[in-house]
Amino acid sequence: MDDSRPHRPSGILAPLLPRLVAQAGVLAALAGLLLAFVLLGDLRPDLALLGFLVMLAFVALRPVPAAAPAPPLEAAVAPEALPDRGGADLRAFIEALGDPCLVLDRRSAVLDRNGAAARQYPNLLPGRVVTLALRNPDFLAAIDGVLRTGEARSFEWHEVLPSETWDKVLVAPLRDGRLDWLEDAERRLLVTFQSLTELKRVEAMRSDFIANASHELRTPLASLLGFIDTLLGPAARDPAAREKFLGIMRGQAERMSRLIDDLLSLSRIEMHQHVRPTGSVDLVGLLREVREGLQTQARAAALEVVLELPAEPAVVMGDRSQLYEVFENLIENALKYGAGGQTVDVRLGPADRPGLRHQVSITDHGPGVAPEHVPRMTERFYRIDAEASRKKKGTGLGLAIVKHIVQRHRGQLAIRSRARPGEGLRVDVLLP
What is the mean pLDDT of residues 118-143? Predict the structure, then answer.
């Protein structure tokens, strides 16, 4: 009786047959190519058959790389590399910001803060509602607007106590790409504070500078025009009046010339303030030279400039002409405003601050300056008594020039005064 079961390939052909079937298209194309070479070219049929058999064996015996195991279902659908909503990544991000930064929840309670925020707002502890600690109407409106619309808001925050400050505050939604922020029950806000105080102060100083410079030039210029009209009119034939008015006009012209010279000097110093000087200057010899150059002013003020200098040279890296201008300006100011004392003391010694080696102190024994004026004395055109300053031929720019020169030399300038009789004003110049 015949076996009716289908014949199954056995032996070595059983595992090879699926590979040949899978590559049937490639083998058929190869067979067609060899047939074309036989019919149209000079390829011998036996060589063509031999080549086809070799390729057939190569395909059949070539090892097949093992397929990668399919990932389990839960691994395939679980999100990968999604940020932890509370996590260390956000903490590291806000801590890396140089400006104060807060993370708030939907109730405006503080979830996290960086070090800058902790220093600036120490009462904003995690868990505290920020609107209870910072009662600013614009801040409350910005938070409310973001919570309602999901759009970032910013405003300028101006405080006057304990000191005048400006901040740009940005309140923005902290979005998670997986959810609609407005519908997220755990939605969060990011609040950043960018200080604008220095920028505002620079703008105010620039405005004051332009206004003051215009005023300082307008006054002598108006005097010159008035005296010129007088000389062209009523005093045209009066030699005595002409001589008197010409002397006043010369003084006003010299005042404008000094002001322009100081403005140009200040501009040059600011232009090169970032470039550190490379020359060498002996402070001992320089201070002696400055004293000799001011002997005439000292005799006119009935004061003596007393030097207290070390025996050995004190060499610093600097620009000799600029350092000469610094000490000439400071000693000259001490001679002008140190009336009532007998001496102006100039002392050179070691500095007591890290990174600075030499300290030059100029002290007068006059009436001194009230403490509230001291922080502003290096501002351009700042005068404690404008009329007295003009009578002493001051331009209001001397200490500003001194400050910029000292900064260019990577030094520090300190002014001290107690406004007590006999104590006067002391200015310290510290240099590396």
Answer: 86
